[in-house]
Amino acid sequence: MRRAPGNVRFHLSSDDLANVRVRGPLGPLAETMFAMCALHRSDRGAVQDEWRRRSLRRLSPAGACVMRFLTPASRIPLDLAALAGHTPDIDEALDIVRTAPDQWVREELETLPSRHILPAPVRGLADNDRQARLALMAAVRACHEATVAPYWDRIRAHLRAETVHVAMRLATDGLSGLLERQRTRGRWRPPYLDVPLPGQGRDVHLGGRGLDIFVSVFSHDLSMLVPADQHSSFTLVLPALPDPGTAPALWTSPREPTHRRLAALLGPTRAAVLEAVAEGRGTGQIARHLGISPASASQHATVLREAGLIVTSRDRNTVLHTLTALGTMLLNGGTMQRTDDDPPATR
User: Domain HTH arsR-type, which positions (predicted)?
Assistant: First the structure.
């Protein structure tokens, strides 16, 4: 999956519009890549100043050198996140990248403007050197631990809440209103989606593959990821920046991880079911993901539903669950994130 270069005009057919979906968090590897791009920029303002200071202190010189090459400012980064998909676990994501085909690595390196001056630890990547691949993984992990891992539980909770709001905005305001309210430079001019990106402008036809919409807390503007194959959906990434009122709670010193507090409150399995619901999993998917029986997954979902934490609907033979505002607040560490979709408080 490659980020399309240039001020690109994407053509959406009726089939594409029928397959526009808002999906859950991209995962920790994608957020790490966006985070490293964010470290290069100086236009973030006070919202992320605390995060930037802490991250730069934690980042090792070797890790910073490699990642500066992988995420060049204002250019297309090495698309590790697309290879790993939306894997919610950083170890699984890195293992996928570690075993990626050599041809994929060579093709990705060709997209980088600095490919001829590779940093020493990864200089052998283009030659299929295993040690260089391991050095790449070590650098990515170091950057993840410096920039994302200390805040991941709160970042994930913020992204889950913002995903719900994005779905509501898309349903009520359409694609044009969504892009405007997310404060992006992208514009929907039916049937065209204009996306300002580095490089030369061109036209891209989605060809009926549809559009998956994600949000990222580190993305500064709209991004479009273009699949390399002819079957996968295009991916639209919108910024999900916390506002100045909620940012301090997101970037201050990490507290006890949210999942531990949830487990203490609900029990470990039920807490895991609630988190799986937030990732968009149905009953059968929850059972497979957690290694429990479908009956057990259904029972836990029933308790969560009766507690007002989730709502359940059925689509043919599939049972779908969605977090309520209370469930989102619980996953968010007990704070309700205020957005312009929320009604004003009354007395």
Answer: 260-335
Pairing of strands 2-3, 318-323: unpaired
CATH 1.10.10.10 fits 256-331, yes or no: yes
Domain range summary for the chain, segments of one domain joined by + = 2-25+152-249, 28-150, 256-331
Q: What is the DSSP string of 209-245?
A: --EEEEEESS--S-EEEEPSSSSSPEEEEEE-PPPTT
Per-residue pLDDT of the chain (347 residues; tens, 9 = 90+): 454 455 789 999 999 999 999 988 888 998 998 888 888 776 555 557 778 888 888 888 777 777 777 676 545 556 777 677 778 889 988 988 888 888 877 777 776 665 556 676 677 777 778 888 888 888 889 999 999 998 887 888 788 888 888 998 899 999 998 988 887 888 899 999 998 876 667 888 999 999 999 999 888 788 887 776 678 888 899 988 766 666 666 776 555 556 677 888 899 999 999 988 887 778 888 998 899 999 999 999 999 999 999 988 876 777 778 888 788 778 766 544 444 444 333 33
Residue count of the chain, please give it.
Answer: 347
